[in-house]
Design brief:
The structure is a single chain. A hairpin with a 4-residue loop joins strand 6 (about 110-115) and strand 7. This protein is globular. It has helices spanning about 30-40, 50-60; strands spanning about 10-15, 15-30, 45, 70-75, 85, 110-115, 120, 130-135. It is α+β, with helices and mostly antiparallel strands and about 150 residues long. It has a domain at about 30-130: Mannose-Binding Protein A, Chain A (Roll). Bound molecules: 2-acetamido-2-deoxy-beta-D-glucopyranose. 2-acetamido-2-deoxy-beta-D-glucopyranose binds next to loops.
Length: about 150
């Protein structure tokens, strides 16, 4: 069904509790919109990436430099130069575009994929594996998860 590789990132709130943002790679190809629906129905949403470290972890999970996967970023349908996150996270202004990307505004490449090098805009009707994110309180993390 789906291959799940689990992982990481600690977000500390006020030094008291720790919420873990867990990214999961689903090795099942879907269109971006289908992947978004799947993530929202079953989990939380497509992954938001907000730091170099987090991005590197996702790239590592891809396993090979030319493996591609959807992340939660897409073009604002009104302002095409503006990219927004599926989960509504407006705080991050982190981007990891590959050289000469994004280049698909006029080619209707309105969704964003990641590979081992970086991000690129890509046609939303292409089918790719994808990353979704869930949030877990660190106190409830299960040891059956494998951490990269
Ligand atoms: C897209 O941009 C417009 C104009 O700035 C804004 O009003 C709208 O809320 C944006 N859409 C999303 C989904 O963020």
């Amino acid at each position: 069904m789906e291959n799940i590789f689990l992982v990481f990132l600690l977000i500390f709130h006020g030094g008291f509790s720790a919420v873990t943002r867990v990214h999961i790679h689903v090795n099942e190809k879907k269109r971006w919109g289908e992947a978004q629906i799947y993530c929202r129905q079953n989990y939380n949403d497509l992954s938001t990436i907000s730091s170099t470290e987090e991005n590197l972890r996702l790239q590592t999970m891809l396993g090979a430099i030319d493996n591609h996967a959807w992340i939660g970023m897409y073009r604002n349908g009104t302002v095409l130069d503006q990219f927004i996150w599926s989960d509504g996270d407006l705080k991050t202004n982190f981007y990891q575009w590959k050289r000469e990307q994004p280049d698909g505004k006029s080619k209707s490449q309105h969704c964003v994929e990641v590979d081992g090098i970086g991000w690129a805009d890509y046609g939303c009707d292409e089918v790719l594996p994808f990353f979704y994110v869930v949030f877990q309180d660190i106190r409830f993390l299960s040891l059956k998860h494998s951490y990269v």
